Amino acid sequence: MSVSSPNPVHVIGGGLAGSEAAWQLARAGVPVTLHEMRPQQTTDAHVSGGLAELVCSNSFRSDDAEHNAVGLLHEEMRRLGSLIMASADRTKVPAGGALAVDREGFSAAVEEALNGEPLITIERQEIAALPDEWDSVIIATGPLTSDRLAGFIRELTGKNALAFFDAIAPIIHVESVDFSKAWYQSRYDKGTGKDYINCPLDATQYDAFIDALLEAEKTEFREWEGTPYFEGCLPIEIMAERGRQTLAYGPMKPVGLTNEHDPQVKPRAIVQLRQDNTLGTLFNMVGFQTKLTYGEQKRIFRSIPGLEKAEFARLGGLHRNTFLNSPKLLDETLRLKSRPSLRFAGQITGCEGYVESAAVGLMVGRYAAAERLGRPPSPPPPTTALGALLHHITAGADEATFQPMNVNFGLFPPLEGADALNEKGRNLKGKDRKLKMSTRALADLDKWIGDTPKR
User: How far out from the chain centre does Cα 197 lie?
Assistant: First the structure.
C-alpha cells in the first residue's frame, strides 16, 4: 500500500463493486483510498474481514458469452481488465457451463491484487458520513449498508428514496407470452393500451391456482433477513391463506377488462403483467411478490393461461435489500444529481448479482478516473451488456416501479433490419437471436475500447 495522495478518490465498501472500482481507478493512474469497515464492524451476512467476500453462492452463473447475457457480461469485463473476472478465472472450480470459484481463494486473490497496487490505500473503519474535503467519492456498500451510513444517504436523497425493499415480483420476457390466450389492455382502457398484458383464468383454473399456492413449497429465510410482511406488498401465497377469493378481489381482479378472444365471457380472475422497461421487452407480474421456491414459481406460474412457456428474466422473492431509486436520483455516469461529487456503485444502485455489481463498479471507476484526469466520460454502447445494464439503472426503468435486476437480453435494444432476420427472412428467435445480439455487443465494445482515450 502507498501513502495517500492529497486528492485520492475515496471508495467506500470493499465488496465486489468497490474492489473493482478501486482497481479501475488505480489502473488509470488515479490514487484511491478504499474504505472497508470489516473486520472492525461486521454484518449479519459476512463471516470474514476479507475484501470481495462472497456471502451467498460461489457461482458467477453462466460463462456462455454467446447465448447468455451474464456470460456476455463476463467477456466484456475481461476485455476491460476486470480484477473481479481475473480473480474468478484464477480461482475457478468445476461447474459445468457456469463460472464458480473457490470462495476463500477468490477473496484472497482480490485482496492480494489490491494490496499490491501502489496507488491503492486500504483503510479499515466504518464511514458514517462524508467529510467536506472529499471531492470525489464512490459509495459501494451493497444491500447491507451500515445503519449510520444508510441514514446519511437517506438525508441526501430523501427519506423515501432509499428503499429497504422486501418484495420482488417475477419478470417475464414478452416474446414468451402466448397471445392467442393473452391480450394487451389497460384497466378501463387507460394509458397507452399496451402497458399491461392480461392472462384470464376461469373459475376452475382459478381454484386450481389457489390450491397450488397453498400447497407449494416456500423459501425459508435466514434469521437476519426476517419476514417483513407489509400490507401493501404481501406475498401472494399469504393473501391466498387469508381467503380463497382474496386474490380475485386484489391483484387478480377482472374488473375493467374484456377478453378480446372471448368478449362475451367474464373471467373469474386475471393476471396482469405490467411493462417493466422502456423497450417493452420485459413485463412484471403485478402483485405477484412471493416467497415460493424458484421451482414452484415456474411450475405454478406456467399454469396460468398464456404463460405456459413463460421465460423469466427474474423470479420473485422476499429479502432485505437496500437500494436507491437510481433512475430518479443518479445521472448517466451514476453521480448523485444533487451532489455530483458522489457516485454510487454495485447493488445499492439497483442491480442484482455478483457480476452485475462488479460491472457497475467497473463503469463507475472508469467514470471517476476520466473525471479526475480531465477527460469526458465515455459510456459503453447501449448494445453491450454493460451499456444495457447501465441504461436500466439510470434511464431505462420507470422510477415509480424501479426494482433490482439481473442483466438479461430483455434489457438490450432489439435487433433491427436484416440483423433481426434469418436466411429465410424470418425473425431470429432463441439461441440464434441471442448469438446475434452477443456478436453485435462484442463488436461494438471492441470499437468503443479502441476509441476510448488510454492512460
Answer: 23
Please return the burial class of 273, using the count of CB atoms within 10 Å of its CB with bins 0-12, 13-18 and 19+: buried
Structurally, the chain folds into a number of domains equal to 2
Q: Which domain holds residue 406?
A: 9-163+321-451
Please, what is the Cα angle at 209 between 207 and 215, to 5 degrees?
Answer: 105
Domain presence at residue 4? no
The one-digit pLDDT tens for each residue of the chain (455 residues) are 333 445 899 999 999 999 999 999 999 999 999 999 887 776 655 667 789 988 766 789 999 999 999 999 999 999 999 999 999 999 988 777 889 888 889 999 999 999 999 999 999 998 888 998 999 999 998 777 787 888 888 888 875 555 554 557 888 999 999 999 999 998 888 767 777 899 999 999 999 999 999 999 987 655 444 444 445 567 899 899 999 999 999 999 999 999 999 999 999 999 999 887 778 888 889 889 888 999 999 999 999 999 999 999 888 876 556 788 899 999 999 999 999 999 999 989 988 889 999 999 999 999 999 999 999 999 999 999 999 999 999 988 888 778 778 899 999 999 999 999 999 889 999 999 999 999 999 999 999 999 877 66
**Cα–Cα distance, 343 to 13 (Å, whole number):** 13
Q: Are residues 82 and 93 in the same domain?
A: yes
Distance CA 396, CA 361 (A): 19
